[in-house]
Specification:
Blueprint lengths: L2 H11 L17 E8 L2 H34 L1 E6 L2 E6 L3 H19 L3 E7 L5 E8 H26 L5 H28 L9 H15 L2 E7 L3 H14 L3 E3 L7 E9 L3 E3 L2 E14 L4 E13 L2 H29 L2
Parallel strand pairs: 6-7, 6-8
Antiparallel strand pairs: 1-5, 2-3, 4-5, 8-10, 9-10, 10-11
């Protein structure tokens, strides 16, 4: 081997700067970079790409948690219906769910712009790969997606402004809530990549969320429960209604939907020192014409050394299941075309 060839080989195998620090060729203000290490090049490249994805996913997760905490602190109200007073969270979880879906979709789109700029094999044979994402390209993707979401919100807002029955308007409102929830993580990503690039929401978009919440609250839902644990079940059903943004009203007054919960208890079973109690809740959702539009059955079991404690455990578990399932069923009504 000639001296020149030996020097060239040594230069090629030298440890590149990006293995230990920000690469000089890809300055932080213009690029996002991540290094992946693996036993082979394919593994190293996959891990490097995952490093870029983690930048967005972790940042959005932190942003989402902060928004949820703010919503919980600011959106608690007391609801009193038929002698029941409860503190109900009024933040609309549809927005959080939509935001998470948007995170996954946009992160996948951003990763299409990730390039493997270099790879290096160390003395131990482990491969290092450098993944690079051009910030300007990522900003362009985010700006375009924000514009699409804004257009979607504006379209739903136009439909919300049209005269229609409360439930019809509530469906448009639900779509506004979900779409506006998708905007927040996009803006959070954009702010991280380029703080000066944050777009101002159009007036129609700024006003749409408040209008959507008013439209949802215009839907009155009557709640009734029967059985030994009727107050607890009525409270659980009321919480489910309020979580969707709709309003709980007396069952004997005017309402757009009605929720009826009937509890049944099987005879307690005794097995050695344990008492087992099984409870069943049959739930129906009816429209203003008193036609059933949704129904489901939930069961729960409580086990304890005493019958009273077994009943309490079963009742608490049943109420929690009814609340969760009813909220899902009501959201399905709002999501219906």
């Amino acid at each position: 081997m000639t001296a020149a060839a030996a020097l060239l080989l040594a230069a090629l195998s030298a440890r590149p700067d990006w293995v230990d620090r920000m690469p000089a060729a890809f300055p932080r203000e213009r690029f996002l970079t991540a290094v992946g290490i693996g036993e082979d090049r394919a593994t190293a490249e996959a891990r490097a790409r995952a490093g870029i994805a983690a930048f967005f996913e972790s940042r959005v997760a932190a942003s989402t948690q902060a928004q949820e905490a703010e919503g919980r602190a600011a959106a608690v109200e007391k609801v009193e219906v038929a002698g029941i007073t409860l503190e109900a969270r009024t933040e609309l979880r549809a927005a959080t769910s939509a935001a998470r879906q948007e995170v996954a979709s946009v992160t996948a789109k951003l990763l299409e712009g990730v390039e493997i700029a270099d790879a290096w094999t160390g003395e131990a044979g482990r491969v290092h790969a450098l993944a690079v994402l051009d910030r300007a390209r990522a900003v362009e993707v985010l700006r375009r997606r924000i514009a699409e979401v804004d257009a979607e919100v504006a379209g739903h807002a136009a439909r919300l402004a049209e005269p229609a029955a409360p439930l019809v308007r509530a469906r448009a409102a639900q779509r506004i809530v979900a779409a506006s929830g998708r905007r927040a993580p996009l803006v959070a990503d954009l702010r991280l990549l380029d703080p000066s690039a944050e777009p101002e929401a159009p007036a129609a978009v700024r006003d749409a969320r408040a209008a959507a919440e008013r439209a949802l609250a215009a839907v009155g839902v009557g709640v009734n429960a029967a059985g030994d644990d009727a107050p607890r079940l009525r409270t659980a059903a009321s919480r489910a209604v309020v979580a969707t943004g709709m309003r709980v009203v007396p069952i004997d007054g005017a309402h757009d939907l009605a929720v009826r919960v009937e509890e049944e208890a099987a005879p307690p079973a005794v097995s050695g020192p344990w008492t087992v109690v099984r409870l069943t809740a049959r739930v129906r959702v009816l429209d203003a014409r008193r036609e059933t539009v949704a129904s489901f059955v939930e069961t729960a079991k409580g086990t304890s050394g005493g019958a009273e404690e077994a009943v309490r455990r079963a009742a608490e578990a049943l109420a929690a299941r009814v609340e969760e399932r009813l909220e899902a069923e009501l959201r399905a009504r709002l999501d219906a075309p």
